[in-house]
Specification:
The protein is an alpha/beta fold and 441 residues long. The protein folds into 4 domains: 5-127, Methylthiotransferase, N-terminal domain (Rossmann fold); 141-256, 2-Layer Sandwich (Transcription Regulator spoIIAA), CATH 3.30.750; 259-375, Transcription Regulator spoIIAA (2-Layer Sandwich); 380-437, Beta Barrel (OB fold (Dihydrolipoamide Acetyltransferase, E2P)), CATH 2.40.50.140. It has helices at residues 15-29, 54-66, 68-73, 84-89, 92-96, 112-120, 135-138, 168-171, 180-192, 214-222, 243-251, 268-273, 280-293, 312-325, 351-374, and strands spanning 5-11, 33-35, 44-49, 78-83, 102-104, 125-127, 150-154, 156-157, 176-177, 197-201, 230-234, 258-260, 298-305, 329-334, 380-388, 394-399, 404-408, 417-425, 430-437. The strands form 5 sheets. Strands 2-1-3-4-5-6 form a 6-stranded parallel beta sheet, sandwiched between helices. Helix 6 links the parallel strand 5 and strand 6 (125-127). The longest helix has 24 residues, at 351-374. The radius of gyration is 22 Å and the shape is globular. It binds 5'-deoxyadenosine and iron/sulfur cluster. Iron/sulfur cluster binds next to helix 8.
């Protein structure tokens, strides 16, 4: 096989898709493909898609529309759709866009090389099964390839929670955890390749049960790897935040003081209709326990406004919850009807009310985010440097709290950890001075 074929992957949606795209690119590397950064150069285009909201799903079709000319010029071009739109819509994608040669669901990525070979022979290829085996075992990686300082590692997939708005339990399937031994091997391999920070990924990552001690047990074991300096995990459900995981936040130095813990809404009536299985009060108590364990913990959340039947009073309860928690960062969305989910059938909130609420919610979240970021000025933070900044001699990295930090210091290289005093807070990042480099741990 010659190394001349070119693969262009476009990734939409969550961090798990970013991880999956890396693994697919590595697997196709074994088939003689190298990754390129523009669709014009490619022999194969793969869209790794997201189905979480309507807009995300529609982007796929508009992107495919843009490839019509390319396919006409280059009939051998293989066009594939992967990810959650592939899972949700399957063969419908090929009916709507006949130039698509290949459709592969998130649980079938290990079949990608065979599907690509079928497509090259001129057949349409589709696989949206939920097989028993661990696809990552079958997706071969290139162990020696050098990596940047941060990496994602999927430990858990799928979700059994069935929140009334969410397609994940349908597109990613039931909750499945990867065995701890495989995760440890993969983590060691990443560290040997230069990674210093690993973010464990799962749609419901704190429900992880592939280790006797659950996610907390896995984190403690990962913390024993020399050279691995930082551990994070995302995304969690409040009800799976067990005592062991709360304790780990206070006891494991390598576990960063930042937690993405979505609540979605602050009204008990709406939380119940969302099938979240907890109240606003229970969530706030949980945050208190986490802060008792780790006082400097920064919280991040997801919020949905305009969920069916949400009133102004319900929305006010969400604002009150946000005031009570004080978030370091947050993501907020207008409710989007997803076919096949229970909430899609219910009376909808009108678009103007959704827009108005989103604006007010985001104004509050931005203010909080800014306050917590500004409070870093004068403090010393630990920064893991990732890449050069835009200005000469500048390096950019992330603090423990995931703030971007810029420092001018010629001595610093990607992968370095340093203690940095913050002297300025800008719109999206902090500036530091007097970096004191730390030795690798
Ligand atoms: N509409 C709007 N936002 C949604 N999310 C999930 N489903 C929907 C939907 N139908 C949001 C939730 C979730 C995040 C990943 O996306 O806030 O936590
Ligand atoms: Fe979706 Fe998260 Fe709810 Fe699971 S817990 S159904 S992934 S929002």
């Amino acid at each position: 096989m010659t190394g001349t074929k070119k693969l262009y992957i476009k990734t939409y949606g969550c961090q798990m898709n970013v991880y999956d795209s890396e693994r697919m690119a590595e697997a196709m590397g074994g088939q003689g493909y190298e990754e390129v950064s523009s669709p014009e150069e490619a022999d194969m285009i793969l869209l790794n898609t997201c189905h979480i909201r309507e807009k995300a799903a529609e982007k796929v079709y508009s992107e495919l529309g843009r490839y019509k000319g390319l396919k006409a010029e280059k009939p051998d071009l293989t066009i594939g759709v992967a990810g959650c739109v592939a899972q949700a819509e399957g063969a419908e994608i090929m009916r709507r866009q006949p130039m698509v040669d290949l459709v592969v669901g998130p649980q079938s990525y290990h079949k990608l090389p065979q599907l690509e070979a079928r497509a090259r022979e001129g057949h349409k290829a589709l696989d949206t099964d939920f097989p028993e085996e661990d696809k990552f075992d079958h997706l071969k990686r290139r162990p020696k390839a050098r990596r940047g300082p941060t990496a994602f590692l999927t430990v858990q997939e799928g979700c059994d929670k069935f929140c009334a708005f969410c397609v994940v339990p349908y597109t990613r399937g039931a909750e499945v955890s990867r065995p701890a031994a495989r995760i440890m091997d993969e983590a060691r391999d990443l560290v040997e390749r230069g990674v210093r920070e690993i973010t464990l990924l799962g749609q419901n990552v704190n429900a992880y049960h592939g280790h006797d001690g659950g996610l907390a047990g896995l984190i403690r074991e990962l913390a024993t790897i020399d050279g691995l300096a930082r551990i994070r995990f995302t995304t969690s459900h409040p009800n799976d935040m067990d005592d062991a995981l709360i304790a780990a936040h206070g006891e494991v130095d390598k576990l960063m003081p930042y937690l993405h813990l979505p609540v979605q809404a602050g009204s008990d009536r709406i939380l119940k209709r969302m099938n979240r299985q907890h109240t606003a009060e229970q969530y706030i108590r949980l945050i208190e326990r986490l802060r008792d364990a780790r006082p400097d913990l920064h919280l991040s959340g997801d919020f949905i406004v305009g969920f069916p039947e949400e009133t102004e009073a319900d929305f006010q309860a969400t604002l009150d919850l946000i005031e009570a928690v004080r978030y370091g960062s947050a993501f907020s969305f207008k409710y989007s009807e997803r076919p096949g989910t229970p909430a899609a059938e219910r009376p909808q909130v009108d678009e103007a009310a959704k827009d108005d609420r989103l604006q007010r919610l985001q104004a509050l979240l931005t203010r909080q985010q800014r306050e917590l970021q500004d409070a870093m000025v004068g403090r010393e933070v630990e920064v893991l440097f990732e890449k050069p900044g835009r200005l000469p001699g500048q390096m950019v990295g992330k603090s423990e709290y995931l703030h971007a930090v810029h420092v001018h210091d010629e001595r610093i290289a990607p992968g370095d950890l340093a203690r940095v005093r913050i002297d300025h807070s800008g719109p999206n990042s902090l500036r530091g001075v007097e970096a004191v480099l730390q030795k690798p741990q």
